[in-house]
Amino acid sequence: MRDKSIEQFTQELWSSAPVPGGGGASALVGAVGAALAGMVANLTKGKKKYENVQEDVIRIASHAASLSKSLLELIEEDAEVFEPLSQAYSLPKDTEEQREAREKILEEALEKACSVPIKIMEKCLEALSLLEELTEKGTRIAISDVGVGATFIEAALQGASLNVFINTKLMRNPEKAGEFNKRAQEILDDGIPRAEAVFQKVLSLVKV
After folding, report:
1. Domain count, the chain
2. I need a labelling partner for 58 at 20 to 30 A (CA). Which of 101, 136, 139, 207 fits?
3. What is the C-alpha to C-alpha distance for residues 103 and 151, in angstroms, rounded to an integer?
4. What kind and span of H or E run contains 152?
């Protein structure tokens, strides 16, 4: 999935194919947000004006590259976990035995389908920390890209969370569903205000 061109990916997203969907799209948006952090860090490298933060921006650039790669890999992983879920819905349920088997398979598939968007959210939270750091240490000529990155990360967090909540709503195990919901909400409560703060800070710096 990640080796497709942008046009191919968006065409498949547009189509009636079950994947890629919102989860993969969220991972892609998060990867772009992380890559923007890397871009700003790379633009800050070697600049005499920022010589006191060179070690930091080198670290940020490296971490951003790793996060962006991981998020692209999660596009594929999201598609992989959705396939057994879609198959589980089509399992027969004519007899009690079939219904029990279907529910067991479906529950396992739902858990896996929740795990990937949680990973996406966690990686996005890491990327957000880099963008926060760049509001202070990144070159001012690319500060707008820090704000763009934070906006993308916020969208990715919200998008991935919806993929958690739609699946937990269908789970039969309330404890497991509650665990996923709690983790997703914790990340949202932490990340959304922080992403908004980065955007507002950047806005104050670039808007006349």
Report:
1. 1
2. 207
3. 38
4. helix 143-168
To which residue do tokens 């991981």 refer? 70
Predicted TM-score (pTM) of this structure: 0.93
Both tokens assigned to 57: 């921006």
Any domain includes 29: yes
**Residue 2, in any domain of the structure:** no
- Structural domain for 103, as ranges: 18-206
**Pairwise CA distance, residues 81 & 148, whole Å:** 30
**DSSP, residue by residue, 106-127:** HHHHHHHHHHHHHHHHHHHHHH
Q: Are 157 and 192 in contact (CB under 8 A)?
A: yes
Nearest CA among 8, 5, 2 for reference residue 30:
2
Q: Which residues of 45-71 are buried (b: 16+ CB within 10 A; e: fewer)?
A: eeeeebeebeebbeebbebbbebbebb
State pLDDT tens for residues 21-71. Answer: 999 999 999 999 999 999 999 999 999 999 999 999 999 999 999 999 999
